Structures are given as C-alpha cells and as structure tokens.
Amino acid sequence: MEKQKFYLTTAIAYASRKPHIGNTYEIIMTDAVARYKRQRGYDVFFMTGTDEHGQKIEDLAKAEGISPQNYVDNVAGDIRRIWDRMNTTYDHFIRTTDCHHKKAVQHIFKKLYDKGDIYKNEYEGWYCIPCESFVPESQLKDGKCPDCGREVTRTKEETYYFRMSKYANRLIKYIEDNPDFIQPESRKKEMLNNFLLPGLQDLCVSRTSFKWGVPVDFDPNHVVYVWVDALSNYITGLGYDVNEQGELYSKYWPADVHIIGKDIIRFHTIYWPIILMALDLPLPKKVFGHPWLLSGMDKMSKSRGNVMYADDLADMFGVDGVRHYVLAEMPYASDGTITYENMVKRFNTDLANNLGNLVNRTVAMTKKYFDGVIPTPGEETELDADLKATCMTAIEKFKENMDTYHIADAEAEVFEMLRRANKYIDETTPWALAKDPEKKERLGTVLYNLTECIRIGAVLLTPFLPETAEKIFAQINTDKTDYASIEAFGTLESGKTVGEATMLFARIDEAAFMKAIAEKEEAQRKAKEAEEKAKEKPEPMPQVDISAFAALELRCAKVIAAEPVPKAKKLLKLQVDLGYEQRQVVSGIAKFYKPEDLIGKKVVLICNLKPAVLCGVESNGMILASGEEDVKVVFLDESVRPGERIR
User: Fold this and answer.
1) What is the pLDDT of residue 426?
2) I need a labelling partner for 242 at 20 to 30 A (CA). Which of 73, 448, 524, 644 fits?
3) In this structure, what are the phi and psi dihedrals at residue 505, rounded to the nearest 5 degrees?
4) From CA 20, how far away is CA 2, in angstroms rounded?
5) d(Cα 161, Cα 266) in Å, to the nearest integer?
C-alpha cells in the first residue's frame, strides 16, 4: 500500500546573522513533527532553507567590504551548520540564491504581470529595513514598526504592485470554509479582524532602491521583492516552475503544514495564499504560527545582550538537552521562556532524575538479579495493571497532541508516564523482593514491566531525543523501536540480555554552573565595554614636535629573568639584556603576566628614563604596553636584536 505523503516546512531563515535559540526552536519543532510522522508510516518531505536577498543584506555586505553573495554564503553555511548540529532531518535545504529558484521566481512574477495582477506604480510611505517591510501609516505603533518595534524610514520609489485586494473576499471565504487552515485559533482571528475584514491594500512586490535580489527580467531596474521571492520557495524547492511542475511538486504539494513564527503569520496566511490563488495553485492545508521563545521575559536581541545560541547551549547541555528544553517549554499558543536556571532545573529533573535514573536503575537491577536477562512476566497485580494503563493512555494522548501540534503537551505525557514508572519502583520495592527466593517470579514481572515502559517511552521520545532513544534501545537490547510495536503493552522480548547500564545524563551542579555563567557574562561585559571604550575618541594631548619624541631612547630589550616584587601584587622585577648591558626594570604588569610568560620575550624599553625606586626596588627604565584594564605588553619580532634602536 502506498504511503500517505506529508510535506512540511519551516520558514526560511533570513541570512543576515547567526540564528539564536529562539530562531532555532522552529527547526527543532518541525524536525520533531517530521520524525513523528515518519514513525507513523508517512512518506515525509521536510524542507527548510535561507532567505538571502534584500536591502539589509546588501548593506551588511557593504559594511564588511565583501559581495552580498559571499556574505550570504557565510551566513547560510552557519545556519545549516547549526541545523545539522541540532540533529534535524530535513530533506532539502533551499537557498533563494539557487539558480532554479531565481529562474522560477522570474517566471512567476511575469505570469502574474501578464495576467494583470501586477502593475507598476509609485510607493511613498514608511519602510522597516530590519523586517524588509513596507508599513502602512495606519499600522504603525507609536510611530514604529508593528512587528519589530524599531524605527521606520520614509521612502519614495517606483515599484510594481500585486492586486491583493482582488482576492481578499475569496481568501476570507477560504478561511471560513477551512477553520483549521490557520492555527492556533487566536492567529486566525487576528488575521481576519486586523487585516482582511478592514480591507486589504495592494502589495509592493518590487524594489529599485537596491540591487541585491532577483531581477525582474522584463524591467531590469527592478528586483523582485521578498514576498514573491521568499514565499515562493515552498513550491520552487519542490521543482515548480510556471511551465513545469516537477516530480516532487506533483507528489507533495499542497503542503500539509507551514510551521512559522507568529511574527510572520500575516505573510503566510494572507500574502502567500493570495499569490497561490493568482497562480491557480492549491493552498497549503495548514499554517501553524508558533509563539516566541523569550529570554526571561524579554524578546532576544543583541542590543539587550540576552541572546543565547543553540550550539553554545549544546556544548553545555548536549544536543538532546537543548532539544528537550525548547520542545518541553514552548506552550501551544503563548510565549515560552528560556533561562540558564530553568535549563539546569529541567535537565536535572526530567533527564537526569526521571528518565536517566529510571533507565539506569532498571538495567542495573536486571543485571544484578537476572544476570542481565530480561525476565518473563508472571501473574499481573493491580499495580501492574495501573502501570500498563498509564502507558497506553500516554500513547493515545501523545498521538492526539502531536497530531494537533501541542508539542510540549505531547512530551509532558511521556515524562508523566516515566514518573509513574519511578513510583512503581517505590511501590514494588524490587530490592526487597530480591531477598526472598519465593518472590523471584514477582521480581521478574516488575523488572519486565519497567523495561517495557522504558521501551515505550524511548519510542515516543524518538522525535524529541533521537540520540538518547538510540542509547536506551541499546541498553535494553531491543529492536522493537517502531510505532507499531507500542500498540499493545508486552511487545518486549524476554530472554534477551540487556546491554551495559550507562549514565544517560549526568546531573549538573546548579550553583557551580551558574557561577561559571556569571563569570563568563562578566568577562563578556568587560570585553564589550573595552571594545566600546576603544571606539571612543580619546582626549587630545598637547601636540609636541619631533624633537620631543626624539628625546626618548627606545631600544629592544630581551627579558632574561622575571620574578614578583615581594609585598607588591601589581609589580614584577625584570632583568633585561640590551646587548651592550643588562638592567633591572620594575613593571606594573603582575596582574596580566606570569614571570615565565615573559622570559625570552623581546620588549620595547625606554632607556633614558630617570631611575626610580618602587616598593624598595630600583627600576632603570620602562617597558611599553597598551591598555588599562587589560594590559598587553608590546612584544617585538624575534629577528630584532637586543639594543637595536626603535624609531
């Protein structure tokens, strides 16, 4: 029997910067859905990628002195690296600089123009560069962009417009006839009440004020604007072009779901469906606008200094630790939050204590009491029946939640089931049963039920914690890992020997972890302050003529010995070789250098400075260094000879 197809996408990430954990949540969530659907037997096609055109990228590339293509190549590579690090299983990574995509976008634009749905006009109004969006005055919030809250600029230019107004009533009817098209429900009400019902304005779909975009082939002064360019990726990535559908397009379109952030819901539920209507193409079945992942209570931004990155978090918590946190913490419709404290608490509670401890105890007891052989279950008690019922209920609730994109609720069902299994250990006390030879069969039943519960949990957790699930399957030595195997309790095979009981997650010392984070953040704060201070224009010093500088005798000196000055925390006593003589110099660099760091190095010495006594030690000269809070000694190249004059 042919598998049922399932096509899902993320929004394509804007290739202007490295994505933070809030951006990365989307690819992790979509991957969990894709893995789940594959488990359920669907023929899944999962697409993600990057949006690589626009004024912002053109400006950023110019600031770095590189071409826009080089700029997006670097950022797109970074995005893909993070997607891969998060163990996501996308089938295609589209870039809007791909040749096929650009060609197809030109053809789409021309078809809409030939149809009369695109016309030339002039735009004058407000524009948000970070969002790449024109903003009608009626939608400004306190004079700023309604989406990102940043400043908008007044602009005027010739553009092509798309007749959105022509299709507004048709879209309203489609939404009313397909109540599940926009999810959650609150997003649908927002689109209808705030945008569609008050009346749609036509949409600007080309630009002349910058060049980094897909050229309009019949009017080269224009580039295709983001709405036709970026949104079309969902079909061009399947091979669609105006004159050819492509095998993947014919098989997978329409999309079963676009998974996107709530901040771009308008573009995907109004602009994109109307473009498809104008092209006479089917609309996606569902658009799910997930909430934001906030840093504490604030939106993540570099200016606030509260940005977290997925790869950094993976270094601290492991990839599955990061996947678990964001999937478990993000509610269905309201914003989630991430802090280091919460990550440590959830890691320890859910992963180390609940899941990891359960697996470790069960495998260890099977090793200890049954020589590692999974026992055959015996007569069932009420406690056993209750555990089995909990498992089967969890499976059904898990499916309901996953099928409706209540991802956090689905994962919560699994961990509630695992908590019940831990309680079952306390209720059955297998260590006490092991002391009575007559209760060997009962002990075997308990350990079998625990191992089967763990197996079911690992199957359910595979979309969320794929690496961990594989480790669990290896520890309990089972190949019963598919979804069909959990339709009934008791599929686990008795008589097999379990693997080694290894720790899945090591508990994190919260106090030590938070101290390390605080120290790291303080170092970053100081580095940022130093960087900003370095950018400040220094107070001008009195001008001097060349004779004043010439009066300084600067020479290369090699450090041959160094030691701390007693009772002086800031001072080091150096012995330096000038080639023609040796001298003793005292320098206030003990906070920044150890004596062994300096020995053998060549420094710049002011030789004709009057001798001075510092903390009872005579100093005959001064070495040159930069900085105040972070002092760096000026070291000379090895090829410079001691005593050589510095001019």
Assistant:
1) 97
2) 73
3) -140, 120
4) 39
5) 18
Question: How far apart are the C-alpha atoms of 416 and 155, rounded to whole Å?
Answer: 55
Distance CA 637, CA 75 (A): 36
- Residues linked to residue 558 through DSSP beta bridges, in sequence order: 577, 602
Tell me if residue 12 falls in helix, strand or coil: coil
**pTM for this predicted structure:** 0.84
Residue with tokens 């080694």: 500
CB atoms within 10 A of CB 530: 14
Give yes or no for a contact between 159 and 208, defined as CB atoms under 8 angstroms apart: yes
Judge contact between 347 and 508, C-beta under 8 A: yes
Pair of tokens at residue 151: 């400043």
* Pairing mode of beta strands 182-183, 206-207: unpaired
Residue 482 neighbours by CB distance under 10 Å: 13
**Beta-sheet strands, E only, within 570-644:** 572-577, 582-587, 602-606, 612-614, 617-619, 622-623, 625-626, 632-633
pLDDT at 303: 64
Gap between the Cα atoms of 223 and 552, Å rounded = 61
Task: List, for the chain, all residue ranges whose pLDDT scores fall below the cut of 70.
Answer: 302-303
Smallest Cα–Cα separation from 54: which of 120, 121, 134, 117?
134
One-letter amino acid at 258 equals H
CA dihedral of residues 95, 100, 101, 107 (deg, nearest 10): 170
Helices 319-329 and 310-317 pack at an angle, to 10 degrees, of: 110
pLDDT of residue 348: 98
**Pairing state of beta strands 293-295 and 5-10?**
unpaired
Both tokens of 31, joined, read 């991957």
State the CB neighbour count (10 A cutoff) for residue 63. 9
Estimate to the nearest angstrom the gap between the alpha carbon of 448 and the chain centroid: 39
Identity of the residue numbered 330: M
CB within 8 Å of 321: residues ≥ 6 apart? 313, 314, 343, 347, 351, 505
CA nearest to 615, candidates 577, 574, 573: 573
Q: Pull the structure tokens for residue 481.
A: 């890992």
**Coil vs helix vs strand at 326:** helix
pLDDT in tens, 554-595: 999 999 999 999 988 899 999 999 999 999 999 999 999 999
**Hey, is 167 helix, strand or coil?**
helix
- Burial-class residue 111 by CB neighbours within 10 Å (0-12, 13-18, 19+): middle
Residues 111 and 130: beta-carbon distance below 8 Å: no
Q: Report the Cα 278 to chain-centroid distance in Å.
A: 35
The owner of tokens 């030339």 is: 120
- pLDDT tens track for 174-191: 999 999 999 999 999 999
Phi-psi region of 54 (alpha: psi -120 to 50; beta: other; left: phi over 0): left
The angle formed by the CA atoms of residues 309, 256 and 109, to the nearest 5 degrees, is 85
Distance CA 612, CA 619 (A): 5
- Helix (H), strand (E) counts: the chain: 23, 26
The CA dihedral of 398, 403, 408, 411, to the nearest 10 degrees, is 30
Maximum Cα interatomic distance, the chain, rounded to a whole number of Å: 103
* d(C-alpha 433, C-alpha 430), whole Å: 5
Cβ contact 458:418 at 8 Å: no
pLDDT recorded at residue 526: 84
- Would strands 257-261 and 622-623 be described as parallel, antiparallel, or unpaired? unpaired
**Is-cis flag, bond preceding 540, omega within 30?**
no
Of 112, 97, 111, which Cα lies nearest the Cα of 12?
97
Rg (CA), the chain: 33
- β-strands 625-626, 632-633 pairing: antiparallel
Residue type present at position 385: A
| Cis ω before 595 (30° cut-off from 0) | no
